[in-house]
Design a protein that fits this description.
four-stranded antiparallel sheet; 37 strands; 4 helices; 27-stranded mixed sheet; alpha/beta
């Protein structure tokens, strides 16, 4: 009986264990639970990723909107500087390119909304899709710090940079040279103080654009300038450098677009820094062709180059920024941008402008020297309708000039001074304002004596000399150690011989600097005080940025 009962119990247990009714449902529920759990986790992860992606997208857009604010600000500052040449406004409420300065340190240019497709002007609130506000701190008339806040939805990014206005002009140099007709553009034992800018010959390989020999070179100060010249020119700017404050500098840079620079003997580009004196020795920068050690040749090469940016920086202006102007190009007024009609009603070239709007001297006047009798034109001693006037006083050796004075004759060599002369020039005063003057020769100009501004060069008195062919300084027999100041332009070549000292700028295709160490000193500010009719007078403004970094409010 017990065995039978035991058997029945075992059978029931076996039947219970073998019974699968309801297991499919349980398994299904467990599987569904697991799937739902994975689905919820996946959806949560996807949602988080979407939110993170949206935040990243909005943050990226806010960053680029902040950059747009920087670019817009640079544009506004540049346009304003082209008009006023100054950001350093001393009163609240000043205007920068149409935007009002709310206080001395910062202001907002504008606030821009973005609807996903287009920019539009809006009131900048948290409800807008996005936009930028820009504040700036004006350091001085040419330096500013810009901070831009970019916003898109709830994301905000900040960018800050330092910006400096640069003025580019062929006359902001001691020497500006074209391509040269053959061989070296500048060759000789010449001492240049100030910037040098040489375009060189495009496509040529290792052409020697500049070859400096002997004991000369390129410097960044007025060390060695004659005291008589120094007393007649404006003071150079000052800078802080290498722990020294308020030291004089010419902000000198050497630029060669095509070609290399040869240094031989003890010739140098810049000089080693010396602390404790009153001026800067090293050049502010060197920018040669494609950069690299191959930019310098001669028996010294780059060893005698002392520059704040080393020797391997390439030419820093793109194609089309600068070219050497010719007198057959269109004449454009550098202040107004206006052109002037020639006899056919078409815009004038430089030559046509000189012919039509200049004052032509009689053909019997071929020189201005101590042997030249006194004269003045116009006859009534008043400038003509174009502001042209010239007066030569033989007794005092003084030349008063304004406007453009034209020397006719295709082969003429117009002589200024002779051995032993001192010619002092000044501008003609009209209604309380001194006007500057320019002498234009359709042939050559040769100077054989000292030629100095009577007062302060170039802010009070400045003289321009333009030759269709050549300008020759101290090239005649007995000429030596002459002193001159002015803006010199020769379409072909400028020759500065002997031991001249020149204050101003040379602009020509070619140069001959001889072997007796003539010197030329750049006078900063000439580009803003040019005599009338000078080629390449239009100033190009550009913004230089530095210290770019992302900041936090």
């Amino acid at each position: 009986m017990k065995k039978k009962n035991k058997k029945i119990i075992n059978n029931k247990i076996r039947d219970l264990l073998l019974n699968q009714k309801g297991m499919a449902l349980l398994t299904t529920l467990i599987f569904v639970f697991i799937l739902v759990t994975f689905a919820v986790a996946l959806l949560t992860m996807t949602s988080n990723d979407t939110k993170l992606s949206a935040l990243q997208r909005d943050s990226t857009k806010a960053f680029y909107i902040a950059e747009a604010g920087i670019e817009r600000t640079l544009y506004n500052l540049k346009k304003d500087f082209e008009t006023t040449q100054d950001w350093d406004n001393d009163i609240d409420g000043a205007i920068i390119n149409g935007y009002t300065l709310s206080d001395k340190d910062s202001y907002e240019f504008r606030k821009i909304g973005y609807d996903g497709k287009n920019d539009y002007d809006v009131t900048f609130t948290d409800d807008t899709y996005g936009g930028y506000t820009v504040s700036l701190k004006i350091i001085d008339s040419k330096n500013v710090t810009i901070k831009s806040k970019g916003k898109y939805n709830k994301s905000t990014r900040y960018i800050q940079i330092d910006a400096k206005m640069g003025e580019l002009s062929i006359w902001d140099n001691a020497i500006f040279a074209g391509s040269g007709q053959s061989g070296k553009v500048i060759n000789g034992n010449v001492d240049i103080r100030g910037s040098v800018h040489i375009l060189g010959t495009e496509g040529a390989v290792a052409v020697e654009a500049l070859d400096i020999t002997g004991t000369a070179g390129i410097g960044n100060n007025y060390d060695g300038m004659d005291s008589n010249i120094r007393s007649r020119i404006i003071n150079p700017p000052t800078t802080d450098f290498n722990g020294e404050t308020g030291i004089e500098t010419l902000n000198a840079k050497l630029r060669v677009k095509h070609g290399i620079v040869n240094l031989s003997g003890t010739a140098t580009v810049g000089d080693p820094d010396v602390s404790g004196n009153e001026y800067k020795e090293t050049l502010d920068g060197v920018y040669i062709d494609d950069g690299g050690d191959d930019s310098f040749g001669g028996n010294q090469g780059a060893d005698n180059v002392y520059s704040d940016n080393g020797t391997e920086q390439p030419y820093d202006f793109g194609e089309g920024t600068f070219h050497f102007p010719t007198l057959d190009e269109l004449y454009i007024d550098p202040e107004t941008g206006a052109t002037f009609p020639n006899d056919d009603g078409n815009p004038c070239s430089y030559k046509e402008y000189y012919d039509k709007y200049g004052l032509h001297l009689p053909v019997d006047i071929s020189s201005i020297t101590s042997d030249t009798a006194s004269f003045h034109y116009p006859d009534d001693d008043i400038p003509d309708t174009n502001g042209n006037y010239i007066n030569w006083d033989q007794d005092t050796g003084e030349l008063t000039i304004s406007g453009i004075i034209v020397i006719d004759g295709s082969c003429i060599d117009f002589a200024i001074g002779k051995k032993g002369d001192l010619i002092e020039y000044e501008g003609k005063e009209v209604e309380g304002t001194k006007r500057r003057g320019t002498i234009v020769s359709k042939g050559d100009i040769s100077i054989h004596s000292d030629l100095l501004a009577k007062n302060l060069f170039p802010t009070t008195d400045a003289l321009g000399l333009i030759a269709y062919n050549d300008i020759n300084l101290a090239k005649g027999p007995g000429d030596s150690q002459l002193k001159m100041m002015g803006a010199f332009f020769a379409q072909n070549k400028i020759t500065s011989a002997k031991q001249n000292q020149i204050a101003g700028t040379f602009a020509s295709e070619n140069f001959d600097m001889g072997t007796n160490v003539p010197k030329i000193f750049q006078v900063p500010g000439l580009e803003n005080n040019l005599p009338p009719g000078m080629p390449g007078a239009t100033i190009i403004y550009t913004m230089h940025t530095s210290n770019w970094h992302e900041v936090y409010e």
